Amino acid sequence: MAVVNGAFTRTEGFNAVKDTCRPVFSEEAVQSGEVDGRKTYKMVERVHVYMPGNGLNSPVFNVTDEHRERWPQEYEAFKRGVEPDLNGIPLEEWAILNKAMVLELKSMHIRTIEDVAGLPDTAVQRIGRGGYALRERAQAFLDQAKEQELVTMLTAKDEKNSEEISVLRRQVEEMGALLESLQKKATDDFDRPNALSTIIPASMDINERQKPIHAAPVETGSSFDTLAPIKRKPGRPKKVAA
Fold first, then answer.
1. What pTM, to 2 d.p., does this model score?
2. Across the strands, what pairs with 60?
3. Are 138 and 145 within 8 A, CB to CB?
4. CB–CB of 73/55 below 8 Å?
5. Is residue 174 part of a domain?
């Protein structure tokens, strides 16, 4: 990855700054030599490097691995034949700028609010008397956008947590109702008479056969006790013993 050189500004001093350069990759026919009096050409990958705030200097290089590593997304878009995504908020979406201001900034290769916020002092001075105020407003706009994004993210997170809590509460209530239903069913089954006793005789019911048998008491005595005495007819008197 290429290292971005330091830049001196009145506000930051000599520090490494963010890579704000915008590359534009292309494939161009470049003269490679001359054979028998005719020029020869070959197709070469080229990159035009535009620096926000500098409308006069846009160097062109043959593409090397350093450029591919420095701007991988832009190079991939070039190979796919599509326009690279704009890295930032377009100037057209900034309400404080009119059409003339937008065109003037674009002539300096400034395309986004992020470009304005990151301009070095040298570029700000090229804008004119209101350059510093414009940069400060761009920085304030981005700070406010970050705060709003954070608020939106936290709000969405709170809503998600509330929804998850509601789902868990509903699941707990459903589980409680299910347990109550199972407990009631178990109680009803325990109190209900054994279904086998209504179909199978007691002598065949295992549960009934296990109960102790209480037999009726047996009366004691002789089997002749039921014989009635014979009534004697009147007649001859009984013999008297001597």
1. 0.48
2. 48
3. no
4. no
5. no
